[in-house]
Each structure stands twice: as structure tokens, then as C-alpha cells.
Amino acid sequence: MSLLSVTSLGVHTSAGKALLSDLSFDLAAGQRLGLIGESGSGKSITSLAVTGLLGAGLTASGSVLLDDVEVVGAPERRLIPLRGRVSSIVFQEPLTALDPLMRIGKQLAEPIARHRGLRGTALRTAVAEALDEVSLSDVRIAKSYPYEISGGQRQRAAIAIALASRPQLLIADEPTTALDVTVQAQILRLLDDLVDARGMALLFISHDLAVVSAMTRDVIVMSAGVAVERGPIDRVISAPQHPYTAQLVGSARALDDMLGTK
Amino acid sequence: MILELRNVSYRYRKGALALDDVSISVDDGQSVGLVGESGSGKSTIVRLMLALAKPTSGDVLFEGAPLTPATIRRFRASVQTVFQDPYSSLDPRQTIESIVAEPLRSLGIARGDEARAMVAASLTSVGLPADALSRYPHEFSGGQRQRIAIARATVCHPRLLLADEPVSALDVTTRIQVIDLLAELRDSAGLAILMVSHDLSAIAALCDTTVVLHAGRVVESGRTAEILTSPREDYTKRLVEAVPRLPAL
Amino acid sequence: MTAAVIVNDIVAPPRRSRSWTLVVGLILAGAVVLIALVSLVWLPYTPEDTTGTRLEGPSGTHWLGTDKLGRDLATQLMIGARIALLVGLGSVAVGAIIGIIVGLIAAFAASWLDDTISAALDVVIAFPVLLLAMLIVAAQGASLGSVILAIGIAMSAIVARLTRVLTKRVLAEQYVTAARTSGTRWPGIVIRHILPNIWPTLSVNLALQFGVAVLAEASLSYLGLGAPPPNASWGRLLQEAQGTVITAPVGAIAPGLALIALVIGVNFLADGLRDVADPSRKRRR
Known about the structure:
The structure holds 3 protein chains of 3 kinds.
Chain A: E1 4-13, E2 18-27, E3 32-36, H1 43-50, E4 58-66, E5 69-70, H2 76-79, E6 87-90, H3 94-97, H4 104-116, H5 120-133, H6 139-142, H7 151-164, E7 169-173, H8 181-198, E8 201-206, H9 209-215, E9 218-223, E10 226-232, H10 233-238, H11 243-258
Parallel strand pairs in A: 3-8, 3-9, 6-7, 7-8
Antiparallel strand pairs in A: 1-2, 1-4, 4-5, 9-10
Helix pairs in contact in A: 4-5, 4-7, 7-8
Chain B: E1 3-11, E2 17-26, E3 31-36, H1 42-49, E4 57-62, E5 65-66, H2 72-78, E6 79-82, H3 96-106, H4 112-125, H5 142-154, E7 160-164, H6 172-189, E8 192-197, H7 200-206, E9 209-214, E10 217-223, H8 224-229, H9 234-242
Parallel strand pairs in B: 3-8, 3-9, 6-7, 7-8
Antiparallel strand pairs in B: 1-2, 1-4, 4-5, 9-10
Chain C: H1 3-10, H2 15-41, H3 73-108, H4 111-126, H5 129-140, H6 144-171, H7 174-181, H8 186-222, H9 234-241, H10 250-277
Helix pairs in contact in C: 2-3, 2-10, 3-4, 3-6, 3-8, 3-10, 4-6, 5-6, 6-8, 7-8, 8-9, 8-10, 9-10
């Protein structure tokens, strides 16, 4: 039984333009999948469509079964119990993902209180534990506003918030693209550890082939809203079949070669 | 020696130190890469090198001498820049011709038909069609816009091209094309290049020398190949190791 | 492209309803302009002509009837159209010129000067427009010129604040830095890069201020502070028709409708302007 079952998912604008066409894939509990694509490929739209977060003016077609609940066309009240409890998203830019006017500790307390029904001291302890889990143990951080801490710390906080509701599926949409490369390595390691420890399923979205190869084994390559190739990432990189994939791999390989052998 | 920062320090008004005793120089024919993460001070270095700010101590030298009102025009014509965001570095309300011709116009190098001819030649050299002249930036993709920015930066045949994160905002497939273009210009026009970036592979593709910047100080500098294969300093080692690599074939 | 960017960029209301308002706006505002232009070459009667029967209803000889002094209402309405447009355009011109200059200065000024100017602007904006206008009119005497000046000055503070914000936004763009490194001096940057880029938003705001100015003038005239006859504006007509609104309603309805038509027409046009000014320039990522 799949945790996430996507069948012929499509998204189009009110003007009729198709942003995503005929996407199908399954994700079982604890499984990992990478979505690789550049801007305009439809990869980010996929994460929104899967959780029923498409904005007004965008319509989804096809079927998305998240924990056996049909997301496409579902009313808000049926989607709310899914968000947080079943799936959570970590976005690219923590500055916009976090509320700039709320302290970190308070932002983290909200989902914990809502999903685990904790109050008072128990809540405070849970918040401290959640921050510990993402290596944000410094007590000052809980009292800080997002702009007062670094990009890497913000993203750790965003991850903690996403995980606070104990989701079964974590969707990470370019989670490290906005971060420095040394910080990126740490955050990727953190995500890897947490996903493993909690047995979560992971949908990892990125344009960076090297990053995806470090996080997932199976990938789907997307271009202009269509899935052009899929398979184990080792095979996709060593023997790309679709011309777009070949171009993508070729460019990534050319840049990677500049750095010399590992 | 085209441009040199000699023992430059820069302190913010609030007192924080952005740069501490930094020395960097670029000579004709050289390609220097400045690699640094956020907070390293690289943006401050760019502003100082473009004479958009003055150092708190130390000197910024153009052709061996500090800038004066008399030399600034020559400086601007000799040192041109490609900026990071292709969606912000082109004035949306101007035609491509007007955008690329701006240095010619403002520095009194060429006008009218002569300017137009130089603009057309510049656009051709970056691989854009001649009919781009009368179009507007929003009609072009990110990679094409960056080419337009490069055309603008090379139209007056500068000695040094300062590239500030020129490919960071581009798709991977476009990145390699723009890097190739910059390499070609470096070789054919004898252009010196100073590239500021957090992306080591872009620097490795374009620059013979690399300067590693961390927390406002130069941590290490030397030939790019050596820095990549045998970094000496701890920070450099961490930086090189942190870059995500494709699985080996 | 991140999810957040997609949600903000792609969603846009359908175009069809927008063009409908543009057409209505053109018709309403255009009608008033037409009437004003016609009034320059032809009027049914002369404005001072009091030969008509007093407070007569609409008829063949007097299309909208007469006022309490026997003057033809249609004539007065047409002259009022001229006045309304003059005041609207005049105040917007005064407000724009003063406002844009002050706004530009504030945007470029050192922070202490910018703060001072912004505080002063806030004070002017907080001041009730009519009160400000009354002070100026009281000092200068009631005339069309003083009314235009008064409303224009009050409006300039809003224009200045908007100009300041828009200019600061443009100053943060990389193409301004690129212009500086291309050797362009600041005056050139203001003319070639700043003004063209703030104009789309600014012009929409000015178009809306036009309607505000016309209504402000009507209020001033209604309070007796506006230009005296024969430069009688619609507001003045409303004031004069006040006493006889039950027995001769056309005297109040006509100028009232005319005001509504002009202000709504210009507002709809401004809405349409907003569409034209920016749609294709939107960022595509």
C-alpha cells in the first residue's frame, strides 16, 4: 500500500496553459524519491499539487492519493487533517517560510501544540527537544526572530517546524539551494539522519544532480511539466536516455569535472 | 597592473569589520576567482573595486594610482561588470540597444550610428541575433539576459571584466554556456577576469588563480588547480569537501 | 522556481472583466471631455443670461431647465465640465511637479534629511485636505487659481511619499548600479532609469488623484470657498440648488450625476491604465 499514489497528475492555469502533464509515481512509507528539474519544469508545482496547496487560478487534474485520501478536487476540510500529520514541506527560502514577526520558539510551539496536544511545561520541553534534534540547542535561538539568526539556522528551524507534526512524508523543495555550500552539506546530513531515524518517506526536489544523488536513489527527471525519464540515479547519470536528461547530465558533468577527481 | 586592492579594510558605520587587511590584484591576461560564502566580504570587495564605496583603510589602485576625478572615466571604460541577477541588471523599460550602448553614451566613446554598429558587433560576439536591438529584456530568458549583460560589459572593450556571481541565478544547462562564453571572450579579446562566486566549479572553469575569502580575510590564494587538489588551510579544505559531487562514473 | 514564487506570479484575474471597466471609463470620462470641449465653441445660452423663467423644469428651450435666477442649467453644466477638468488637470499638475521633486530629494537624501522630509509629509497628509485648502483660499482669496493651488499642494504630499518609495525601490535594482559603473552620472540615471520606471505606478496614482481633486473642488465650492460665478463649478451648482431641491430636483441631480460620471470614469480609466502599464513587464522566472 503506497503512502502517496500519484496518477496522471496535471496542473493548468485558468488561461489553459499546462504547467504539469500526466505525472505518475508511487511512494511507499519510508521510501525516497528525487524530482530533478530546472526552472519551469513543474517540480515545485508537483509538491503543491500533492498537498492541495495550489493557489487560486491553478487547477489540478488526475488523482493524488495521500494516505488513501483523494487530494485532487478535495475540499479544504478534508485536506487539513493531512497537512502536517501525513505530509510536511520544507521550502527553499526560510526567510519567507518563517513568520518574520514571531519568535522561533513560538513558531515551533504552534504545530507541536496542535498535533500533539501539549501545553505548558510539557510543550516547552517538547520545543526544546525539537530544537535539539536539529542542533539548535542554544537557548537564545528559541527567543530570536528569524532575521536575527543565520540562513542555516533558519532552515534548521524550518525543518524542525516541518517535522514537529510527525509527518509520514517529508517533501523538501530545494531545501539547500539558498544556503552556503558548507552549510548545505550540514543540512543535507541533518535531513538524511532525521528521515532515516523517523522512517519517513522523502520526496526530494532539486535542480542539482549531485545533491539529489546524495539524498535519493530513485529519481524522476522533469522538463517543461513532463516527466521525461525515471530510474535509479546512477543509471540516469551514466546512461541518460532522453535528450534533455543527456543535456542536463552533460552540463552537470562538465561543471563537476572542473573540480578534478574526488 | 589593472586593479589592485592593497591592505584594504572596511568597517561598517555600526563598527562591524567587513574586510580585514585584504590584498588582491588583477593584471592583464589574468583570470582571478574570488570564492567566499555569505558574510565573507566578497560583496564589499566588489563595491570597493567598482569605486562605489571607499575603504576605511588601505588603497584601491587603478593602473597603479588612486582614482581621481581625472582618471575615473578611463577607469570606468577599463573595468566593466556583469552582475548576478539577470532579471534586475537590465532596465525593463529600455531597448536592448539602449542598454548595451549605455557605456558608450555615458563615457563619450561613441554615439548614433557608430554606437549602434558597436552594439551590434557586441551582441554578435555573445551569440545573440542582430534583431535583438529593438526588443525589450522581458522577451528574453535568464541565460540570454546574462549574455546581454556581457555584451554591455564588453562593448567598450574593457581591460578587466568583473563578474559578480554571473551564473548563480541560471539553470545548470545555461550555466555552462555562459561560462564557455566568458572563457571565449577571455581568450579571444585578452580580457582579464575577476570572478566573484560561491560556486567553486564555476571558478574552476574560468579562473587560473583563486583567492579564498572567509570572514573578511584572505584565507588562502594560489593556482586554482592546487587549491582544489591540495588545499592548505582548514577552511579551504572544508569548502572543497563540502561541494556536492556527482557519483564517479 | 520555488513554490512561493509560482503562487504569486501565475495567479491573475481573468482579463475580460478588466476591459469592460476600461470601456465604461472611456465613455464616461470621454463624454465629459467632449462636453467641455464643445463648451469652448458653443453654449446654448450665455452664462449671464437670466431671461428664462425661474426654476423651470426641462423643456425644449432649456434642456435641463433653469436655476433660481433664470439661468440655463445646461449651459452652467457645460461650463462646469470645463472647470472640473481644469481643476483636475491643474491640481494634478501642481501636485505632480512639487511631489515628484520632493519625493526624489527624499529618496536620495541622507537619512536624517529623509526622515525630516518624511515626517513633514506625514504631517501634511494627516492634515484634512479641505482644512488645508480653506487656509490657502482664505489667504489668497477665492479664485480658480487659488483652488487649484490649494488642492495641488495637499496632493503633492501623497505624490511625494509615493515617489520616494518607488524611487528607493528602483535605486536598489542592479540596473542602477550597472548604469553607475557604465559611467552614467546621477542626473542621467534619474532621467533615463528612475523616472521611466516609477512612471507606470505613479501615473495610475495621479489618475486616481484627478478624481479626488474634482471632488475636493466640489466640496470647496459647496462650502462657498470655490471659484465664484461665472466660473461656477458643479459643486457651486449643488450649493445653489440646495434650497430648491424638492421643487426643482434637476438642479441638484444634474451636477451630482455629472460629478459621479467624471470621477467613476477616470477611476475606471486608471484601473485600465494599471493593466496597460505593467502586464508584459512582469518578471518571468
